[in-house]
Amino acid sequence: MHVKFVILTGMSGAGKSTALKMMEDMGYFCVDNLPIALIEKFAELAGQQDAELQKVAVGVDIRSGQTLRELQDVLDKLKQEGKAFDILYLDSTDEVLVKRYKETRRTHPLAGSERVDKGIRMERMQLEFLRRQADYIVDTSNMLTRELKAELEKIFVLNQDYKNLFITIVSFGFKYGIPTDSDLVFDVRFLPNPYYVEGLRSKTGNDPEIQQYVMQFQEAGQFLDKLEDMIKFLIPNYITEGKTQLIISVGCTGGKHRSVTLANALYYRLQDQKEYGLKIEHRDIGKDALRNK
Fold first, then answer.
1. For the chain, where are the E strands, in sequence order?
2. Are 57 and 28 a contacting pair, CB within 8 Å?
3. What residue ranges do the domains of the chain occupy?
4. 3-state secondary structure of 179
5. pTM for this structure?
6. d(CA 154, CA 119)
7. Measured at the alpha carbon of residue 50, what is the angle toward residues 46 and 53, in degrees to the nearest 5?
8. Which of 7, 111, 113, 176 is 20 to 30 Å apart from 75, CA to CA?
9. CA 168, CA 159: separation in Å to the nearest integer?
10. Contact 169, 271 (CB under 8 A)
11. CA 3 – CA 275 distance, rounded (Å)
12. What's the start-to-end Cα distance of the chain, in Å?
């Protein structure tokens, strides 16, 4: 009997505990923090003919301490014995991890009395050998819980090809600052502003009236064509390079009209691709309304 065997690992604070619960809901028998020395034996037991286990997930991370170094030997031995396994690696940016630790007021397991960011750097070094071998790398930096669940279901339920890249398209207003985690930033303030058109100021780029106004200008369509062409050129190169998340930020003055319209249009053009995950955020769409109260 073929057993689906998954090793779930990654950075502390990236969502491994949540992912294990999700995989349990998907029918996996999950064991967290199994001692390294028992992983080979556990894989052997799970693969026995009379075993009822068909899908197994084992959580492994830096809680294993010094014995984590022994995991490579275990993985090599499993390969030699013909036992198939997948490695799922959850990651997040250092900035997001620090923020999560501050919000939960937890201390990083490797930081001790030092700052959290030092513990994160040490952890990255210790887990690098697993990240290099990972079959799936999911960056949870900008993911909601339901979005993580959707990504895991793509991999482990729907068996879809997974390219490890997750794209977030963000609309924003320059007067509120450029999103700090942006990889690519595009300025659409060259387009006429609906803010100054009577009857349109209170509406947003999610409304048909604003979309029609912005897209009536030839420059808007040309910009979108060139942007789509460039993004679709970059994506396979980013995937080859090993990039796991791409933040595309589209900005106008207030982040309410032009940027929302163009971000929505770009999202629509990219959403038919299966090579990556995709989501959209309108960071500043409601801020003008709040300021005017």
1. 4-10, 29-32, 55-59, 86-91, 136-139, 165-173, 184-187, 245-252, 276-282
2. yes
3. 4-162, 166-291
4. coil
5. 0.68
6. 32
7. 40
8. 111
9. 23
10. no
11. 27
12. 65
Provide the CATH number for the domain formed by 4-162 in this structure.
3.40.50.300
106 is written with which tokens? 């937890």
The encoded tokens of residue 174 equal 């320059």
pLDDT in 10s for each residue of the chain, 293 residues = 467 889 999 998 899 999 999 999 998 999 998 889 898 888 888 766 555 678 889 999 888 888 888 999 999 998 888 888 889 999 998 888 888 887 777 777 776 667 788 888 889 999 999 988 888 889 898 888 988 998 898 888 876 666 678 889 999 999 999 998 899 999 999 999 999 998 898 899 999 999 999 999 999 999 999 999 999 999 988 888 778 789 999 999 999 999 999 999 999 999 877 678 788 999 999 887 555 54
Write out the two tokens for 36: 């390294």
